[in-house]
Write a structure and sequence with these properties.
The complex is a heterodimer of chains A (409) and B (430). Helix content of chain A is 2%, strand content 56%. Chain A contains 2 helices and 21 strands. The longest helix of chain A is centred in the first third of the chain and has 4 residues. Chain B has 430 residues and is α/β, with parallel strands linked by helices. Chain B is built from 14 helices and 13 strands. In chain B, helix 8 runs antiparallel to helix 12 and helix 9 runs parallel beside helix 12. In chain B, 49% of the residues are buried. Classes of the chains: A mainly beta (409), B alpha/beta (430).
Chain lengths: 409, 430
């Protein structure tokens, strides 16, 4: 009679909740950022290649655009309902960027061309390796860069259509503690690392009723970011090494489609007001799968249900022109797609209210410098991640400055 | 200059606004007073783990976990235990996981006695360090609580294994009751934890049911079940002594010992599904799925030397289910049920908090998740029970501590904090 101790079900793999919620970055244009993040209705500059490709036909001319944003979020976790435990995530600076070049062609103004490179989704958080939630997440870093060649066609003087092809590439890094300790008490760890790519499109319709009123509709498709040859590395006690072989993995993350409707209105010559609605279809994100090339009794493929809901964000902004200077103000309400009970420490998301402001300066006719600041108000909130029975109170704060420059040819 | 400082000041305000500033809510003590804390119990409250009592396990005992949480509401409280000096254990070397080659030549991961055994100082008398807040003593029964010369009796039972109690009992001739009253009057506890009764039924089970389930005269021998009426009367009287001076406290009831890996790990049939032969009292019969074998039985005899086939497994290593309520297993179940009724009555009588650990451990069968780790009662991989299959890992004790805290909070309207289970050691793998 064999009495081997078969060790099963160590790996509960509560990991990878990271793709929860609001890791959509609404930071693709500085002027838009300064006005609450909307830009579907009004064509401001070459960033319309992202916000509404239909707007390319309504730009004044060819433009090059570069922007960078400095994102340094601070997140704290405290024990609930009472306690003495506090954990602060490590401070880390992220720099989403945007590059655009495009506009209507000189030869034929009906046709517009553009190329965009931008960072629409991203997330990262690094907790202490020994913190209380380490079996759920120690560190997650997600990056994506989208490249979007785009063309537009002005059907009439008022109506312009645009569409672009999206190639996305990015990377994933994830570290999580494993509840197996060696003879000295050192705990195990799982590390997943890989590159991802995916394809999609971005299309829009822009209508210019008059010089004072513009509106648009844009649809950015879902992009299924696939990891084909990720590397899974396990650090475990030597007696369990055969149960946790280092192996490759496949997986995918469906980045949601976004349907936007926007309108811009100019009540006076200097003042422009704009309003945007974004419907973010997070519900397309039904489950998360990671298939390991090599499975054992303890290392099984991961398939986790996700219960995200689609959300609608509201964005309102104003722009006042003083000649060489312009001042922008705005705000947004950006609800979380994560349900109660699915608020995880890899992205302790909550409904957010965003306040924005900005300034632009045009020293010479062709050149404009834009600075924007976003302040995110995410009120301290209790969150629980029920699959791991992990709960606590979170507070996240971020002031997000950005700077950009446009040059008209 | 003025402009500059304004800018700096506003920058500082902006930056400060970006830092989280929440802090955890402080626990409160409600109607209880945790400033002087005393523990009465057996091996479970002493910190016993992996088949022995060793220093780091004592330092993370259930009692210490609770004392640490009490300290958050009673900062001046102190808590002292009669710690053993070594890491290997008293009375035996503790079990560790090791790759062991058995009589069939198969090497697998098994619990084995630690090869280190640092016994120096194990048997020192440390009464000079009194008072000790934790008087929990491995093996302690309600049935022995009134027995004077308790240490001498233990000594006679297992010669050469000087009991842990000998380290710290104020007087060698004391009964456990006398030691409890002495400690009580020394510490003047405002709050106590009381967890006894396990050994009143376990020693019978550990003997394979070879003792008496109904010993006469209310004086159980060391392989007998303490009669339920004796248990009830003494339990009430002992707890009555603890509350006599107005102390509040919590009582913990008796787990279903038959759910523990000690009784559920060794299979009753071989790999081909042939049930082993056993001695059931005087008769020899095939085992059934309702019978149990003890984890401490000689496994090699089962694997290689004909136990269960050519030689029926001795009665001493098995628990029989034949006879329903009148079987060994039936007597054990009945005793636990009756003890727990008595414990609940005592808790109600004195207005004390009650931890129904029996029910909680049943919920663990399907797994209890704490901060991403799933705990089950399975031996080794379940993470809850230590390598003796009977006592908890320190993480298992922390799960218990949280149940105790919940009960206290409910009874006394306190808001004591939960223990972070995963900060304590679990099973260590080679």
């Amino acid at each position: 009679m064999k009495k081997n101790l078969i060790l099963t079900a160590f790996l509960s793999f509560h990991i990878l909740t990271c793709f929860a919620g609001g890791f959509q970055l609404n930071l693709q244009g500085l002027r838009q950022l300064a006005m609450g993040g909307g830009g579907t209705g009004w064509t401001w500059d070459a960033s319309t290649i992202f916000y509404n490709p239909g707007g390319i036909g309504h730009m004044d001319g060819m433009q090059a655009y570069a922007g960078i944003i400095f994102l340094n979020p601070h997140t704290r976790y405290v024990q609930t309902p009472t306690g003495d435990y506090t954990a602060d995530a490590a401070s880390h600076l992220y720099t989403p960027f945007n590059l655009y070049v495009g506009g209507p062609l000189k030869a034929n103004k009906k046709i517009g061309l553009g190329l965009a490179v931008y960072t629409p989704f991203g997330s990262g958080i690094k907790w202490d390796d020994n913190w209380a939630g380490r079996y759920i997440i120690q560190e997650i870093q997600l990056q994506s860069i989208f490249v979007q060649p785009t063309a537009s066609y002005a059907i009439t003087d008022h109506l312009s259509l645009g569409a672009g092809f999206v190639y996305g590439f990015g990377s994933l890094l994830l570290r999580q503690a494993l509840p197996v300790a060696d003879a000295s008490g050192n705990e195990g760890q799982a590390k997943l690392k890989g590159g991802a790519q995916g394809f999609g499109f971005n299309m829009g319709l822009h209508y210019r009723f008059s010089d004072r009123l513009q509106a648009g509709v844009a649809f950015r498709s879902q992009v299924n970011m696939k990891v084909n040859n990720g590397k899974a590395t396990f650090t475990v006690p030597s007696s369990l090494a055969d149960q946790f072989p280092n192996t490759s993995f496949k997986g995918s993350v469906k980045l949601p489609s976004v349907l936007s409707v926007g309108v811009g209105y100019k009540p006076t010559k200097a003042l422009t007001l704009q309003f945007d609605l974004n419907l973010v279809n997070w519900n397309s994100y039904d489950s998360l799968r990671f298939d390991f090339a090599q499975n054992t009794a303890n290392l099984k493929d991961v398939s986790q249900p996700r219960l995200y809901k689609s959300v609608i964000a509201f964005r309102l902004g104003g722009h006042y022109d003083f000649g060489k200077f312009a001042v922008m103000l705005g705000g947004a309400y950006d609800p979380t797609p994560a349900h109660n009970g699915y608020i995880s420490p890899d992205l302790p998301d909550a409904n957010r209210i965003v306040l924005n402001g900005g300034l632009s300066y045009t020293p010479i006719k062709k050149l404009t410098i834009i600075a924007a600041l976003e302040y995110q108000l995410i009120s301290a909130h209790d969150g629980s991640y029920d699959p791991a029975n992990f709960s606590g109170r979170y507070q996240a704060k971020a002031a997000i400055p950005g700077i950009g420059v446009t040059y008209n040819f | 200059m003025k402009k500059h400082s304004l800018i700096i000041a506003s920058l500082a305000v902006t930056l400060a606004a970006c830092k989280p500033n929440i802090s955890p809510k402080a626990p409160t003590s409600g109607s209880a007073d945790f400033s002087r804390f005393m523990v009465v119990g057996d091996s479970y409250a002493a910190g016993f783990s992996d088949g022995s009592l060793y220093k780091s396990a004592q330092e993370h005992s259930l009692a210490v976990m609770l004392a640490d949480q009490f300290k958050l509401v009673a900062p001046n409280s102190t808590f002292k235990q009669p710690l053993v000096p070594g890491e290997s254990g008293l009375p035996h070397p503790k079990n560790v996981l090791a790759m062991v080659t058995d009589c069939l030549g198969i090497t697998s991961l098994m619990p084995a006695p630690d090869t280190k055994w640092d016994t120096t100082g194990n048997h020192d008398n440390i009464t000079a360090q009194e008072p000790f807040n934790n008087m929990a003593t491995p093996g302690m029964r309600i049935g022995d609580f009134y027995t004077t010369d308790y240490i001498t009796i233990l000594n006679a039972l297992k010669p050469g294994e000087l009991p842990y109690a000998a380290r710290f009992y104020h007087d060698y001739h004391y009964s456990p009751l006398q030691q409890m009253l002495y400690t009580r009057d020394n510490i003047k506890p405002t709050f106590f934890v009381f967890w006894l009764g396990f050994y009143d039924v376990f020693l019978y089970a550990q003997s394979g049911g070879t003792g008496s389930p109904n010993p006469p005269g209310g004086a159980p021998a060391l392989t007998d079940i303490t009669p339920a009426d004796t248990f009830a009367a003494r339990y009430d009287a002992i707890v009555g002594n603890m509350v006599a001076n107005g102390a509040k406290g919590v009582l913990i009831n008796i787990p279903d010992i038959l759910d523990m890996p000690y009784f559920t790990t060794v299979p009753v049939k071989d790999d081909q599904g042939n049930y082993f032969l056993m001695n059931d009292k005087t008769s020899v019969r095939k085992m059934t799925d309702d019978d149990m074998l003890l984890l401490e039985m000689p496994i090699d005899s089962l694997k290689c030397y004909g136990y269960g086939t050519s030689t029926p497994i001795p009665d001493r290593w098995s628990l029989s289910s034949t006879g329903g309520a009148q079987s060994e297993i039936g007597y054990i179940r009945s005793a636990i049920t009756q003890y727990n009724i008595a414990i609940a009555k005592t808790a109600a009588k004195y207005g004390l908090a009650l931890v129904d650990i029996n029910s909680y451990l049943k919920t663990m069968e399907t797994g209890v998740i704490f901060n991403g780790v799933t705990y089950t009662p399975q031996f080794v991989q379940g993470g809850t029970f230590s390598l003796d299959g009977l006592h908890f890992t320190q993480r298992g004790y922390a799960l218990i501590a949280n149940q105790v805290i919940n009960s206290i909070n409910k009874q006394y309207s306190s808001t004591l904090s939960q223990v972070d289970v995963n900060k304590y050691p679990g099973i260590y793998f080679p």
